[in-house]
Amino acid sequence: MTPDRLRAALVAVPDRDWLVRALIRVAAEPGTVVGYYSVARRRCGHVDLPDAPGWTADTAARVLLLTVLPARGRKLAEVVEQLYQFGDATEKHAVLRALPMLDLGPAAVPVLHEAVGSHDPRLLAAAMGPYSEHLDDTAWREAVLTCVLEGVPLAAIHHLDRRADDALADALAGYAAKCRAAGHPVSPDVTALLHRRGR
């Protein structure tokens, strides 16, 4: 997904004029982003966007508000972290969806750690999108295991097969063995990944 595609998908939101004004204001006065971010759901609605599958109007609007901020790197990460820390679940989710579209480098990795630590399946799935490339191997493996434990489909994990290694396969094989010993089912996507890893 790109900011341009989100803009196009938001053309029919209930209060399009508000969104246009908000984007202009935030770009010129970055300090106003907190206020606009918090009311985006009320102004743009929570409807699914037909032209952006998997996106709702409020999430897309919030992501766009972050993409027009002029800050970069650590300064931008400070804003992102603030919005994540003090946001509700939908606001946190939008922050995570925005990360791959922002010029952050690895500066916002602490936000991913918080999302993984939340054990919230929706936040986990969003955290394991393209920005998860910035997680080191150990943190990434732990995040994958958390996804498995919380029932997040492995299909949500960006570049799973490229990053999966023997250490992850060992951990998943151990998890699967414990599940079977306890008479619990093993999710098909875990079984499939183990098969692809020759386990």
Automatic annotation (TrEMBL):
This is Sugar phosphate isomerase. It comes from Longispora fulva. It comes from the Bacteria. NCBIfam families: EboA_domain (NF035938).
